[in-house]
Amino acid sequence: MKIEDKQKKKKKITVTGVLLYAFLIVLALVYLLPLVWMLSVSLKSNREVLSSPFSPPSVLQLGNYIFAWVNGQLGVATLNSVIVCTSALIISLLIGAMAAFAIARMRLGFLKYMMQYFLIGMMIPVHCVLIPLFVRFSNWHLTNQLIGLIIPYITFSLPMTIFLMTGFFKSMPGEIFEAACIDGCSIYGCFIRIALPLSRVGMFVAGIMTFVGNWNELLLAMVFISDVAKKTLPVTLTYFVGPYATNYVQMFAAIIIAIAPTIIVYSIFSNQIVDGLTTGAVKG
Amino acid sequence: MNRLLEDRKAAFIFIAPAFLLFTLILFVPIIQVIYYSLCNYTGLTKPDFVGLKNYIDLFTSDETMKIALKNSIFFMLFSGVTQQIVGLFLAVLLTNIKAGRNLFKNIYYLPCVLSSAALGLLWAFLFNPKIGINNLLSTFGIQGPNWLFDTKGFIPLPMWVIGCVALWQYVGQNMMLYMAQISGISRDIYEASYIDGASRGQSFRFITLPLIKPMLITTLSLNCIGSLKFFDLIYNMTQGGPNHRTDVLATHLYTQGFKYYKYGYASAISMILLILCLFTTFLISKCIKVETYES
Amino acid sequence: MVKRFVSGFLAAALVLGSLSGCSVSTDTGGGAGSSGATTETTSGSVTATGKEEQITWMFWDDLNATEDLISKGYKQVIDRFNEQYKGKYYCNVVTTNLEEYPTKLNALVTSGNTPDVFICNPGPNLTQYVESGAAADLTDILKNQESQWYGTFTDGIFERITYDGKIMAVPTNFAAACVFYNTDIFKKAGVEVPKTYDELLAACKKIKEAGYTPISCSAGTAWCLSMIAGYLCDREGGPDNLVDVNAGKIEWTSKTFVDAATKLKELSQYFQDTAAGDSNDQATANFYNGDAAMLVQGSWAIAQINGNNPEFEDKCGVFQFPAIEGGSDPNRMIVKTDNLVMSSTTKHKEAALALMKMFTDDTAQKYTAEVAGKIPVTKVSIDYDKAPKQFAYINDILKNVTGTLGFYNESLASVEAGDTFDAAMVDVFLGNAEPQQALQKVQDFYNKNVWKK
């Protein structure tokens, strides 16, 4: 951050400084070691995991990875997840932002209640509406299709998106809109040309939350999709849980395959991601 | 300008897609769920209207419901308090260091984006009586407790363990939001306070805290609702066991609805959960608002 | 700015796509087969052309990712079916993991999309589909139209899937619960195979003195503990126990159950220290790693044991759960079948039947015994040299078996009743409640939910 005033802080090592960093490093280890441990488990045999969980793998069981990739059909599943989550993300951001714009900036009595209405959605556990929703969707022939997942994902993402975006739009100074208005801009123009571009960071925050939630969603995906070729990543990872004994090592291998590239990308771009979140939230 | 902002047609156009989707996909099923909660319904045969029987049963003869309610409220209070304190603490620490700030921030935020189901599995492994943390402890000659299966006490040990894992996973979000808020506070205010002879502690008390209050409502609501709905971690770590001692409302709902097929009964539980969520949000917004007026 | 935003966004999108959900919970009341060993299965080469009659079969394990030998056998059945009836029938497979199976199946049934054939546990699970009318009555088909097929089945195999004289399902295999033991440890401790409960206690004492864990058991996975409890209840009071308690003739707090629960408590002092939290997989691992002398498990554990520790096959013995002196018939055995249910609304009855027949034909049943180590449901002849060694021991025991019972938790009035029983046994084991108190809770549940009917 540029706010930091470099010349003010003198470089000196103090006891508190050392303690502070020691604490932060220990905490960081608490965060990272479980993940490292998972990596080591994924390279062992099932038997070895149970007998000597912490020692490094005696023989690297790379076969776990091959098995996970081939039999878990991770490639197709990843593609499906990308399709579903990206479409849900784009659509929910768009219609969420539209609704949020009306709620935040327009002056009509009923809009206040709309906000409350949408917020109820944040409080519903998915389990409660699962059966009615499934019956409805199978009547409409929407089950077993990716679109049948995209629609509920959009809906379940809306409350959070609207909640966050309303905050953003409210924080914008009213003068910009007045100025645009005087220039003859319509209300739609205000939204598309002013509100949307100015709320990029807000969309970023809402987008991340939406995407994370949907990407990890298991229950709907499991119940709505039967066709193997249309399953999403979380569903595929559960395949390693057998009816009787769980295939831990190969499941961990599948999880590692799923996160390896992302951890790499994260380490390269993490500052942009985290800054985006930070600056975004300030305005919210 | 006002005319534009009072344009009914435009407002409808803006709000219609979200409204329709929301009503059709979420609200209509909720109405259905309210109806089911008044029925004896297995999900396989037609619902059979029984009035308030499910609700009466819930509160008069369901031992597990009592435990679940107790655990849910404990979990909400525990998460609310610890995530606020630790989140704010980390945020203040990190805004005050220079080197490695982003690195630490990224590391602490990482589990937020990972699935709690997968992490639940990982932690269940680590809190296993033999192969995880206890294995490490035993090399120092310490006999670790039975983390996830101890049943003693009003709030049994597993609930504290799960609370801590939840803290580990989600505290990054509070930290991030607070950091955002704090770094938004103008440097000048602090400078001014230092010139006036304020200590760091005082400036935190009288500048930082009041200015991050709006964020408090957001984070606290998110924490509380999130922890009331909490399912994945508990389900993957203990499945509510042993003997329902770690059941929360969401797991109780799942067991009743999808394991015992008592769908009507489960619907009643979900209505209780919904009411509790609404009440909590209401309480938070009311309490904190009052405070703002006072100061 | 936009560029930066986009790259950041992509990065985020990828990051967030990291770990994904795995609902992991190993089991509910015993399941099919086990994991560990590797057998190659050929993947199906036949694909649907769209001209044939298509049916759906639903199963609780993924046929491609599974390590479970029974599941692999099922995959072969499906492949054979699609090959043999090429152009006529085609079978689509719908799979979930075990945990979400009932959720999904119920959703399908509710929405009127019941799979043509689906797998189902016996007991209250099946009852659910029978009572709601989702399961087709197969009596007429089996006894009249296809009497030759009916004749291939082992006697009495339909007992637990018959409701009011109507056969509601077809079994594909069964598993028997026995005591597996480590012959090496028995030799070192100087113990013989115990025939009675008292001998079992004495043996446990000696084994403990010799420095081994006498019995490996998982109370973390409640049904494992409940299996021992079920045996004790049955050895105390025989088949009447179950029948009468479900019918409301005896109470859960009567002497026979209290004695059984007290014995469970007594026996549990010989479990490994971590039994309270160990999962099923771990308890089994304790046994095949040679730390524990005995393991009470279903025969599906054979493949898991041999698969993880191939040298163990030679020193693994099997005996029938011991008798209780003054108790009931000691030759009764806990068994469990996997069953195929046909949807009552199927439009492809012929195809569904053809599929069910294929599951029980000689090829499939031989595989069940010789490769998967479960017990066939038909009178097929088996090459015992091919099968795991333990399989032959179990078969010897089976020759003397006078009657069978289901898993206790799957034989009670409902799934919830079974769980209540399991939970009570866990409480007894953990010492949270005296046997009397714990059983009173089961009785309370029965008073409220079962007997009032």
Task: Give your account of this protein's structure.
- The complex is a heterotrimer of chains A (284), B (295) and C (453).
- Chain A has helices spanning 15-41, 46-51, 63-71, 74-105, 109-120, 126-139, 146-171, 174-182, 187-198, 200-216, 219-224, 233-237, 248-283.
- Chain A is mostly helical and 284 residues long.
- In chain A, helix 4 packs across helix 10 (200-216).
- The longest helix of chain A has 36 residues, at 248-283.
- Chain B is an all-alpha fold and 295 residues long.
- Chain C is built from 19 helices and 11 strands.
- In chain C, helix 9 (222-237) packs across helix 10 (239-247).
- The model of chain C is unreliable at 1-44 (pLDDT under 50).
- Chains in contact: A-B, A-C, B-C.
List the helices and strands and how they pair.
The complex is a heterotrimer of chains A (about 280), B (about 300) and C (about 450).
Chain A: H1 15-41, H2 46-51, H3 63-71, H4 74-105, H5 109-120, H6 126-139, H7 146-171, H8 174-182, H9 187-198, H10 200-216, H11 219-224, H12 233-237, H13 248-283
Chain B: H1 2-5, H2 8-36, E1 39-40, E2 48-49, H3 53-60, H4 63-95, H5 101-109, H6 116-126, H7 133-139, H8 157-183, H9 187-195, H10 200-211, H11 213-228, H12 232-237, H13 249-259, H14 263-294
Antiparallel strand pairs in B: 1-2
Chain C: H1 2-16, E1 53-59, H2 69-84, E2 89-95, H3 101-110, E3 117-120, H4 124-131, H5 139-145, H6 147-151, E4 162-163, E5 166-167, E6 170-182, H7 183-189, H8 197-209, E7 213-216, H9 222-237, H10 239-247, H11 255-268, H12 280-288, E8 292-298, H13 301-308, E9 316-319, E10 332-342, H14 349-359, H15 362-370, H16 389-400, E11 403-405, H17 408-411, H18 415-430, H19 435-450
Parallel strand pairs in C: 1-2, 1-3, 7-8, 10-11
Antiparallel strand pairs in C: 3-10, 4-5, 6-8, 6-9, 6-10
Indicate the structural class of chain B. mainly alpha
Report the count of strand segments of chain A. Answer: 0
Structural class given helices, strands, pairing of chain A? Answer: mainly alpha
User: Approximately what portion of the residues of chain B adopt beta-strand conformation?
Assistant: under 5%
- Mean pLDDT across every amino acid position of chain A: 80
Q: Using the alpha-carbon principal axes, give the shape of chain A.
A: globular
Unreliable runs of chain B? 290-295
Q: Could you tell me which chain pair has the largest interface and how many residues each side has?
A: A-B, 91 and 86 residues
What is the strand arrangement across the widest sheet of chain B?
1-2
**Rg of chain B:** 23 Å
The quaternary organization reads as: heterotrimer
Topology order of chain B in helix (H) and strand (E) letters? HHEEHHHHHHHHHHHH
